């Protein structure tokens, strides 16, 4: 059945906006990791994999209950590195640093303190 | 030199593309300038990329988490795109994708500057189009095996529209700048270079294209195979040689439909897969000598 040629782009754009609006209305539209609810692991502790680049080191220390010294030692961060910095900012200051180092430091702390 | 006619479809499409492209750039500027200082959740360019949703799909369903730098908005955009795709085919690539718009802009610049275009031989073209699936496979494998957003460090979409090259230029990002540069040069020399040979999202969309409710169809009885419709096709589809459905590589830009001088030869149809092939009910008009319309 022949239809107006503009039906294709109109239907596409309306459908995309409709899905996005429904997601916003239901709270599924999250554009930053800092608003993501941190899930727990099977052991009942917060999942280190949920550490996001948006989180500050202070937030990681508080949220995950890892002492600063243990976190810094595990992630090989200089002791004088400010805790107010976001995790993603470390990458631009310390060459070769990856967010996974923080996750691993928390995992190691959990393993050492079950 | 005689001026070539610009179709109404082309004008409308350019406006829509510009709206989405400029909207994305504006959002990205706001994200870079405002969000960090105010702590506001202003969406970044990469948080709007549907392909990011595809990259994190495996991890999301196996752990409930998204990859670093990927958010739920990416999954929503993927769902929105797939919904649009099932309804209207690959029109996303031709009308919405800012990357496609940038390539069309570069093609327009090339024509204005009277630069030559590289014509890829048909056989080589067919082989190179599989490059999209190679890129897709590589990204999926590396992302799943490393549980990281592996492609982020090379993704030209993120490099260009994330605007990090303006707000946070870094020599460490040279591979991303190099790839983005190659992409820009490629798109300047070959129309829709990225879409045809490299786009991993395009690879996925081409696989699901046949499921859409609406599609462009060629009526072989009305078509005289004049190939006028092929000239404006940004992705170089041999429209006049297609059997019935236009290729899965079609980006739904409608340039071919607008250019076709024969009523009923090339048209948009409501043609879901469960309906038998239908031809236009209208009889074809006699063929006239219609000038080739450029974009």
**Termini of chain B, distance in Å?**
15 Å
The helical percent of chain B reads: 40-55%
Question: Regions of chain A with pLDDT < 50 over 5+ consecutive residues?
Answer: none
The largest β sheet of chain B comes out as: 2 strands, antiparallel
Shape of chain B: globular
Describe this structure in words.
- The complex is a heterodimer of chains A (114) and B (295).
- Chain A is an all-alpha fold and 114 residues long.
- Chain A folds into two domains: 1-30; 33-112, no CATH class.
- Chain A contains five helices and no strands.
- Chain B has two domains: 8-204, no CATH class; 213-270, Alpha-Beta Plaits (2-Layer Sandwich), CATH 3.30.70.20.
- Residues 280-295 of chain B have low confidence and may be disordered.
- The chains are: A mainly alpha (114), B mainly alpha (295).
- At the A-B interface, helix 1 of A face helix 1, helix 3, helix 4 and strand 2 of B.
Keywords:
heterodimer, A: about 110 residues, mainly alpha, 5 helices, about 0% strand, B: about 300 residues, Alpha-Beta Plaits, two-stranded antiparallel ribbon, 2 strands, about 50% helix, globular, disordered C terminus
Task: Provide a quick synopsis of the model.
By secondary structure, chain A is mostly helical. Chain A is 49% helix and 0% strand. Chain B is mostly helical.
Summarize the helices and strands and which ones pair or pack.
The complex is a heterodimer of chains A (about 110) and B (about 300).
Chain A: H1 7-25, H2 57-64, H3 68-75, H4 87-93, H5 99-112
Helix pairs in contact in A: 3-5
Chain B: H1 8-38, H2 50-63, H3 72-88, H4 91-96, H5 98-112, H6 122-128, H7 131-146, H8 156-161, H9 164-167, H10 174-189, H11 193-197, H12 200-208, E1 214-218, H13 255-259, E2 266-270
Antiparallel strand pairs in B: 1-2
